[in-house]
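Problem: given the chain below (170 residues), write out its structure.
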Amino acid sequence: MPNNNKRAVGIFVLAAGLIILLGQWGVFSFLGRVFWPLLILLPGVALHLAFAARTLPAWVLVPGGTLTVYGIVFSLCNTWGFGLIEVLWPAFLLGPGVGLYEYALLDSVRPKGIYYASLGLIGLSILLFIFSLLGAFFLYAFSVILILAGAWLVFWPESGAGKRSGWRKM
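Solution.
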């Protein structure tokens, strides 16, 4: 065997042995547990960069924005625990909303329907974020508001032909 081939085979065998040994020590499972959200985040960022370089059309921003938001959410959950998903679940609506918003803003045609759909998704996501952050407090506050509104409708004194005394005619 020529000396160069022997050296190449030796490097290959050495690398294979090191990879197997590191795998047995759990290095790759650790890296997989820690860095798997990058498998979602990096393609999203790559789609944004490809659009910025003018190699791909604007519609790639829809999956790009979605993957980027999802990658950030999974990175946060991977770092601080998946119990955080109880608060971050509205981001699953925010991702497509961000992607559609970028597409509607940066496409040369500027589709209005997609723009309004993206604003609807983003607005709904923000509203659901608020509700999830308030948690049980929101239910208590909402129930008190309903009780007060019902009591106002039932007990507000009426005068005249069904008109409320508290209202003035303009």
